[in-house]
Amino acid sequence: MPTELTLRDKLEYLVRLTGQREADMLAAALEEGLSEVYRQRIASAYLAGKINREEAVTRLGEESIQDLDYAREAVTRDVEWGLSRE
Q: Three-state SS across 13-66?
């Protein structure tokens, strides 16, 4: 099992590994993390019906929304199949 590192440990390691300045590494981490949180929240809002498909496609792209639709349909089919076996 890997050793649990602090954020400071991880940042210092990445700075040494990449040779980038700490501020640049933090900016990149913030950008990447915020982008991931954004994608997750938009996907959740779409699946919960809080935003429509058009807005979700505008924000995440057609392919991402097609993937979400496929996954939702697969889960629905699995649940229906499971319930029909009772």
A: HHHHHHCCCHHHHHHHHHHHHHHHHHHHHHHHHHHCCCCCHHHHHHHHCHHHHH
